[in-house]
Design a protein that fits this description.
single chain, alpha/beta, 11 helices, globular, binds S-adenosylmethionine
Length: 272
């Protein structure tokens, strides 16, 4: 077997299109084209269990854009480590940050090779902005930090972004320790931006949604309640309005605020 074909087989094995992958299922809900039949079946089942899934996904993307704009425009943040990037969509982190400050540096991290292939092609910035990509798993924050040093200056503030990813880390995989080790690596003045699927909003629908997803996918979902999500911000200063439904985090319009969704989100600043 040649090195090239064994690499191709290894990529196909890792893509594993026969089972749904979070990024590709999410892409279906966002109206994207980078998904396979198993992803589309999981997306349809998710919609059946929780009909407001698409509103939730859009509200989550709105939160991402508003939080990045707030950090770039009002807090002067110029470095973003966006872990769990997802497939390129509208208002990606570097686009929002660089619209305010063209010199913003963004490192994207995802463990799905499909995401990384698309990210390298589409999530590019023009100088003086910089984007970089790391194919790595959130369960190994040390490796992520090592590689991020290529592009980010850890003596200056960094926004660590964990948007709709921590629910893929089970309690056994130590999600709080992972967040702490990321925040320990950045200086005071840095931020944590986080959103997470809720166990205590649309309780029954979300339980059915998670049950179905976990039967189909190798990546399991762990729903968490408001207190469990707020605990990720322990030791940080929570920006107003705190940990809220993502539609309620500084909405720009009544329409945005009214979007049904089952996602908690917040932004916290490291002060010491
Ligand atoms: C629901 S999507 C969210 C995408 C984007 N952050 C957003 O909110 O629009 C979750 C992303 O996290 C990635 N992901 C899931 N578990 C991961 C892990 N353990 N390490 C790295 N990426 C992961 C998936 O591949 C997917 O791209």
């Amino acid at each position: 077997m040649t090195g090239e074909s064994s690499n191709g087989e290894e990529l196909l094995r890792r893509l594993n299109t026969a089972v749904p992958h979070p990024a590709r299922v999410y892409d279906v809900w966002l109206g994207g084209k980078d998904n396979y039949p198993a992803d589309r079946a999981a997306a349809a089942a998710g919609l059946e269990a929780f009909p407001s899934t698409i509103h939730s996904v859009r509200a989550n993307r709105g939160f991402l854009a508003r939080a990045v704009e707030y950090l770039a425009a009002e807090e002067g943040i110029r470095q973003f480590l966006d872990i769990g990037t997802g497939l390129p969509s509208a208002n990606n982190t570097h686009e929002v940050a660089q619209a305010t400050a063209a010199e913003s540096r963004v490192v994207y991290v995802d463990n799905d090779p499909v995401v990384m292939l698309h990210a390298q092609a589409l999530l590019t910035s023009a100088a003086p902005g910089v984007t970089d990509y790391i194919e790595e798993d959130l369960r190994d924050p040390r490796r992520i930090l090592e590689e991020a040093h290529r592009t980010l200056d850890f003596s200056q503030p960094v926004a660590i972004m964990l948007i709709a990813i921590l629910h893929f880390i089970s309690d056994d995989e130590h999600p709080y320790e992972i967040v702490n080790s990321l925040m320990d690596a950045v200086p005071p003045g840095s931020f944590l931006v986080l959103s997470h699927l809720a166990s205590d909003i649309y309780r029954e629908e979300l339980a059915a949604f998670a049950r179905d997803f976990n039967e189909r996918s190798s990546e399991k979902v762990t729903l968490r309640d408001h207190d469990e999500v707020a605990r990720f911000f322990t030791g940080l200063d929570l920006m107003e309005p705190g940990v809220v439904q993502v539609s309620q985090w500084r909405p720009r319009s009544e329409l945005e605020a009214a979007s049904p969704n089952a996602v908690w989100g917040g932004v916290g600043r490291k002060t010491a």
